Amino acid sequence: YGWVECVGCADRSAFDLTQHTNATGVKLTAEKKLPQPVTKDITEIVPNKAAIGKVFKKEAKDVTEMLAKLSLEQIEKVEKDLAEGETNLEFNGKNVTIGKDMISVKKYQ
Prior knowledge:
Layout: H1 15-24, E1 42-47, H2 49-56, H3 60-68, H4 72-83, E2 86-91, E3 94-99, E4 103-108
Antiparallel strand pairs: 1-4, 2-3
């Protein structure tokens, strides 16, 4: 019926370099001193696209893009408003009501 081909992919890692170092005594590693890491606090809105789509239909994509462009101050205001149930934002010259089920605010570093 044919043949079965078996492939063995070994994790050689730095095998060649270590063998060369062992044979010649020359260290073949690269080292670079790195500066202190920088940690940043990130706050973003995570949209629930299904819930937004049900409410806004054709405008759902535009609403999602508008939410992605909010500043940190606006996101903090939205988060505070959502604790009470919903928030109102201006979108294309009209007020848009966003409920708790439509978005969540995510904070991480």
